[in-house]
């Protein structure tokens, strides 16, 4: 099989992530001229015609479907991106696998752990490749942080803090999109951002043992809007013509977790943190040092390492060749990579896995692990008690 052999791809869900996946496929060969097959998006499915039209205008696909089942049945297509809302992940993800097509599905994969497990079972039964959108793993500085932790640069990891704060839900006029309902969004900030936090914790520190948590909802009602509206659009909640609906999931979570290796991890996540936009940070302390990363300065890594214990300096350095896939994007340190670049790396991992290569990219099993941790967080918040993740 030639490296350059084309593989036809379809995208289901032409929203934000649908566009990001399509751009990632089309850019993949710009950065990775060999390895895997060359993906070409030939079809898109979305239930909202305006979304399809916009996707076609930007990505030039010729085949469009209003029903995702027709895209899954298209015999030309071998791999499918599922970038539809969470409530559709279980049905669509399972159908894609059952049709024998490789699956790149967005996190969190469904509404809860049973949904993720159902998709995982379909993937295992069909023997297809799966990739899940835990893209922060692919940031070169995050890859370096993991390598430093594994090689003992900070000593034995002892405690960590993961914070994922943003403000897209801070405005009371933000519409009641699928994200705010149990039936369509499932979890609130848990599925949206905390799922990434769980994955980062596992990626850096290994599997989780148990958790105790609290959750809160700060804005209990939001304006009802048409399907397909962006979750960044704003309505006036005081307008008498605006119908308000109930928010059914959490805006906020705080939890304390322990890993199986005994590291304490504090995680806090909010979608209603006024003044904080996409502010994702982790800090891992060890017996001899520290690594700290901030998504908004995603090429930088703060590292403290040595024998000083007290008054030991922390040094900030830029990512460069040798850190993850940095060299496939830029020739020398100090040139910032972007969010979209992480998806290009993810697309490449998907293509390499389809070609039978070993990769350490996130699979459906990582989505199951994340979803089980999220379910445990929900139970802990409800019962005001420590809950086992490892035994769930
Ligand atoms: N990895 C990340 O960093 C990241 C970031 C954002 C979103 N996501 C995930 O991506 C998924 C999509 O999120 P988004 O922000 O792109 O949402 P979005 O609302 O922008 O897009 C969802 C699209 O799915 C379409 N859709 C709805 N019902 C459909 C159906 N029956 N068939 C086909 N299409 C349908 C909608 O019309 C819309 O175009 C979610 O699961 C979300 O958790 C991941």
Structural key phrases:
392 residues; alpha/beta; Rossmann fold; Dihydrodipicolinate Reductase, domain 2; six-stranded parallel β-sheet; 9 helices; 17 strands; binds nicotinamide-adenine-dinucleotide
Give structural notes.
The structure is a single chain. This protein is an alpha/beta fold and 392 residues long. It has two domains: 6-135, Rossmann fold, CATH 3.40.50; 137-335 and 363-388, 2-Layer Sandwich (Dihydrodipicolinate Reductase, domain 2). The chain has nine helices and 17 strands. The protein has a nine-stranded mixed β-sheet. The longest helix is centred in the C-terminal third of the chain and has 20 residues, at 364-383. Nicotinamide-adenine-dinucleotide binds next to helix 1.
**What's the SSE pattern?**
EHEHEHEHEHEHEHEEEEEEEEEHHE
**Radius of gyration computed on alpha carbons:** 21 Å
What small-molecule ligands were found?
nicotinamide-adenine-dinucleotide
Please state the structural category.
Answer: alpha/beta
Q: Give the C-level CATH assignment of the largest domain.
A: Alpha Beta
């Amino acid at each position: 099989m030639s490296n350059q052999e084309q593989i036809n791809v379809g995208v289901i869900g032409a929203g934000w992530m649908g566009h990001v996946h399509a751009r990632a496929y089309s850019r993949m060969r710009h950065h990775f001229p060999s390895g895997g097959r060359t993906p070409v998006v030939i079809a898109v499915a979305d239930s909202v015609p305006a979304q399809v039209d916009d996707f076609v205008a930007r990505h030039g696909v010729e085949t469009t479907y209003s029903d995702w089942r027709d895209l899954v049945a298209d015999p030309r297509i071998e791999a499918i991106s599922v970038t539809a809302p969470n409530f559709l992940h279980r049905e669509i993800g399972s159908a894609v696998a059952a049709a024998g097509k490789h699956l790149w599905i967005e996190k969190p994969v469904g509404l809860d752990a049973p949904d993720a497990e159902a998709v995982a079972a379909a993937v295992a039964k069909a023997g297809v490749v799966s990739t899940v959108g835990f893209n922060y793993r692919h940031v070169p500085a995050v890859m370096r942080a993991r390598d430093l932790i594994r090689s003992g640069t900070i000593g034995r990891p002892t405690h960590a803090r993961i914070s994922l704060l943003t403000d897209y839900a801070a405005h009371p006029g933000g519409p009641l999109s699928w994200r705010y309902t149990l039936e369509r969004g499932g979890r609130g900030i848990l599925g949206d951002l905390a799922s990434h936090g769980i994955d980062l914790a596992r990626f850096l520190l290994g599997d989780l043992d148990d958790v105790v948590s609290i959750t809160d909802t700060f804005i209990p009602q939001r304006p009802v809007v048409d399907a397909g509206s962006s979750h960044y659009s704003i309505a006036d909640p005081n307008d008498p013509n605006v119908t308000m609906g109930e928010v059914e999931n959490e805006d906020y979570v705080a939890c304390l977790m322990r890993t199986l290796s005994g590291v304490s991890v504090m995680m806090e996540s909010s979608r209603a943190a006024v003044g904080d936009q996409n502010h994702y940070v982790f800090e891992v302390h060890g017996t001899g040092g520290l690594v700290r990363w901030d998504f908004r300065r995603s090429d930088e890594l703060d590292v403290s390492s040595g024998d000083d214990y007290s008054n030991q300096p922390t040094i900030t350095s830029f990512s460069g060749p040798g850190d993850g896939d940095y060299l496939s994007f830029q020739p020398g340190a100090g040139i910032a990579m972007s969010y979209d670049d992480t998806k290009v790396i993810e697309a490449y991992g998907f293509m390499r896995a389809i070609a039978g290569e070993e990769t350490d990219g996130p699979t459906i099993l990582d989505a199951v692990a994340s979803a089980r941790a999220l379910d445990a967080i929900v139970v802990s918040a409800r019962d005001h008690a420590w809950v086992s993740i490892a035994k769930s």
